[in-house]
Request: fold
Amino acid sequence: MIAQRLGRRTGEFAIRNFGGALLGVMLAVMVTIGEDPQADIFDLIDAGMEHLESGLPL
Reply:
């Protein structure tokens, strides 16, 4: 879907890498929710996407 919207091939490394980064954010969110069921899932998703956007500083 991402590749189609951008007019690129689905097999391109950059497209796969981007998809993997999004899945990584969602995995981290799910693990956090598992550890802290009271956490706000939408706040965690926003924080994860902001972290990606900023270049993943540690």
